[in-house]
From TrEMBL:
Species name: Desulfovibrio sp. U5L
A GO molecular function held by the record: hydrolase activity, acting on ester bonds
Domain of life, per lineage: Bacteria
Cited SMART domains: HNHc
Protein name: NUMOD4 motif protein
Length: 185
């Protein structure tokens, strides 16, 4: 377990963020010129991320704590589109050891892998080459043994491996085998 360390937030120099995900105000007392530190109480946004409201003169801004920690202790984001990811998927766990920069697509795959977001399956996935009804028909043809796999693949302009994966249930498993289907082919 590492010790808590603090770094000043560059865009809000009256505040500091810790490697443990805490934020404090550092203001100088006008009486004895000594810092009077005050740890802020974060709020939780509608998506579950911890945030704090920081003030710099007339500028007031709500900032996500995980992003403040990453910028202070990891680095600036590699690009403007990079997102700060919670490695364990727990949005309130803002320790620097639990944070990393990712592209939006890497972050989405990570969320699907952890079960935080459902993967878009079948024809609702805009990268899909098939409709649910076509997969149902492929499964029906496979089940009836009417046509060999290479012929089914040629019929739908697919690779044979795709047909074998449909048959094995490793893809398109949400489309049932059966005698009736109300999806559109």
């Amino acid at each position: 377990m590492h010790e808590e360390t603090w770094r000043t937030i560059s865009s809000f120099p009256e505040y500091a963020v810790s490697n443990k995900g805490r934020v404090k105000r550092i203001k100088v007392s006008s009486v004895n010129n000594r810092p009077a530190e005050h740890v802020l109480r974060p709020s939780t946004d509608q998506c579950g991320y911890k945030q704090v409201c920081l003030v710099n003169g007339c500028t007031r801004k709500s900032l996500k704590i995980h992003r403040l920690v990453a910028e202070a202790f990891i680095s600036a984001p590699p690009s403007p589109t990079h997102q700060c990811n919670h490695i364990d998927g727990i949005k309130s766990h803002n320790d620097v050891e639990n944070l990393e920069w990712m592209t939006p697509s890497e972050n989405m795959r990570h969320a699907v892998r952890l079960g935080l977001k459902p993967g878009v399956k079948g024809q609702r996935n805009n990268l899909s080459k098939l409709k649910d009804g076509e997969v149902w028909l492929i499964k029906k043809l496979l089940n009836s043994c009417m046509l060999p796999v290479p012929q089914i693949a040629a019929m739908f302009m697919l690779n044979k491996r795709t047909i074998f994966r449909i048959k094995a249930g490793s893809i398109w498993s949400h489309v049932p085998y059966g005698e009736s289907h109300n999806g559109n082919a």
